[in-house]
Amino acid sequence: MTDARSIIATIRDGGQPAPDDLRWFAAGLASGAVTDAQAGAFAMAVLLKGLNEEGRVALTRGMRDSGKVLAWDLPGPVVDKHSTGGIGDCTSLLLAPALAACGAYVPMISGRGLGHTGGTLDKLESIPGFRTGLTETALRKQVSQIKCAIVAASADLAPADRRLYAIRDVTGTVESIDLITASILSKKLAAGLEALVLDVKCGSGAFMKTPERAEALARALVSTAQGAGCMTSALITDMSQPLATAAGNALEVIEVMETLTGTSVNTALWDLTTALGGEVLALAGLAADPKDGEGRIAEALQSGAAAEIFGRMVASQGGPADFVERWPDRLPSAPVMREVPGLADGFVARIDGEALGHAVVRLGGGRLRESDKVNPSVGLSDLAGIGEETGAGVPLAMIHAATEDAADVAVRAVQAAYGIVSEMPSEPALIQKRIA
After folding, report:
1. Element (H, E) at 151
2. Active-site residue identified among 81, 112, 330, 358
3. Which of 56, 82, 123, 163 is catalytic?
4. Which of 187, 296, 312, 330 is catalytic?
5. Phi, psi (deg, nearest 5) at residue 63
6. d(CA 416, CA 344)
7. CB 220 within 8 A of CB 178
8. DSSP state letters, 187-203
9. Cβ contacts of residue 1 below 8 Å, gap of 6+?
10. Which of 60, 91, 154, 183 is catalytic?
11. How far apart are CA 320 and CA 323, in angstroms?
12. For this structure, is 358 an active site residue?
């Protein structure tokens, strides 16, 4: 008879539980048959000893199957993208409607800000009236009619993950690549996907700071997702500097809308969106290869097709029907704006992305506690990037704050996050490696 103690002991002693035992443990997390103490011991054992590929697949499938798993009957492939989180990363808002314009169906289940990183749902909720909580019936209707939706996970989706995630947070086991993999994929695969692309961030603004850690996670994610039956690839991408030139909810939506409508295209956002979209279209059979897929995504953005679908999605989820036409009037703005002066003449060589993320959180753009209310208008814009010249009279960023005192604190935090040198450094490559 399977029991939690024997599973934990097997992992503790360096063994590998049978796949059926790991699926039983996942079901026990959801049902309550596994206690908090046992869940914590399991997480620590996995962190210290690890699971093999078969074990990761079994745990992921078990967590996926611990709740409702969506099934679709649509005239095109069901696809999605997941990012491991960074600063100024708002590609989901561009990619979901672009994929829909290319014939894919995108039920994108997203999250809120975590630690120093921003959350897709928080960004969208800066749009007045936008609802991220849809019923399954409403989600199915919208995906069928508009081809995309960006929503929060429902309570019956991968409940084992919700339980284990909370326990990992308080037991010092968040860093386990095996548990990160099962957590990410159990939620994504419960959405009934046929193809998935993963954006694994690497650098100062990412959870994975080194190329080695980022590649280890990317390989674990790809092999596990494919083992669970979903066509998947991953791009390891740079997060040594913010992806957008803004960090903060409404400010990032502004940058998305500028890119969607062609008024001011952010090259890094554009390049990463087309690269990720090209991967998905190729995996789903909607493009001959990733390069062909990139061209199709670029055309969806250039033609306005993605902007049109984004507008329909916003209206369907409770936002203004004229958002694409009048977005500058629809988004909130902060009462205090302050330039961040450079402290030394030279070139930007290093950016502490995590510090910038924490500065946004302290401005009110994120949460220090789960119950905190987010101020959608605050954050940072016009962020200087690596290789840019700075000095007296050349600001590093613009602060958007609720109060003068909060702006004072943010100015000092942003200045401390920038490293300046006398000679121009080379800019890191945006896309560092492809894992398939």
Report:
1. strand 148-152
2. 81
3. 82
4. 187
5. -70, -40
6. 12
7. yes
8. HHHHT--SEEEEEEEES
9. none
10. 183
11. 5
12. no
CA distance 158 to 394: 49
Give me the CATH code for the 79-326 domain, please.
3.40.1030.10
- Note the pTM of the prediction, 2 decimals: 0.94
Q: Catalytic pick from 64, 188, 330, 400? A: 188
Q: Which of 123, 168, 330, 338 is an active site residue? A: 168
Please indicate whether residue 187 is annotated as part of the active site: yes
Annotated catalytic residue within 21, 65, 80, 89: 80
Provide the pairing of β-strand 346-351 with 389-390. Answer: antiparallel
CA angle 63, 238, 82 (to 5 degrees): 25
183 noted as active-site residue:
yes
400 labelled catalytic: no
The active-site residue, picked from 83, 232, 377, 381, is 83
CATH number of this structure's domain 4-64, picked from the four choices 3.40.30.10, 3.80.10.10, 1.20.970.10, 3.40.640.10 = 1.20.970.10
Examine the residue annotation and report whether 168 is marked as an active-site residue of this protein: yes
Q: How far apart are CA 389 and CA 387, in angstroms?
A: 7
Task: Please determine whether the domains at 4-64 and 336-421 fall in the same fold group of CATH.
Answer: no
Active-site entry in 117, 120, 233, 377: 120
Q: Is 83 part of the annotated catalytic residue set?
A: yes
d(CA 147, CA 140): 9
Q: How far apart are CA 118 and CA 120, in angstroms?
A: 7
Beta bridge partners of 105: 78
Per-residue pLDDT of the chain (436 residues; tens, 9 = 90+): 789 999 999 999 999 999 999 999 999 999 999 999 999 999 999 999 999 999 999 999 999 999 999 999 999 999 999 999 889 999 999 999 999 999 999 999 988 776 677 789 999 999 999 999 999 999 999 999 999 999 998 889 999 999 998 898 788 898 899 999 999 999 999 999 999 999 999 999 888 999 999 999 999 999 999 999 999 999 999 999 999 999 999 999 999 999 999 999 999 999 999 999 999 999 999 999 999 999 999 999 999 999 999 999 999 999 999 999 999 999 999 999 999 999 889 999 999 999 999 999 999 998 877 677 899 999 999 999 999 999 877 899 999 999 999 999 999 999 999 999 999 999 999 999 999 9
**405 catalytic, yes or no?**
no
Q: Where are the domains of the chain?
A: 4-64, 79-326, 336-421
354 contacts: CB under 8 Å, gap ≥ 6: 87, 116, 204, 205
Q: Which CATH class is domain 336-421?
A: alpha beta
* Burial 365-397, CB ≥16 within 10 A → b, else e: bbbeeeeeebbbbbbbbebbebeeebeeeebbb
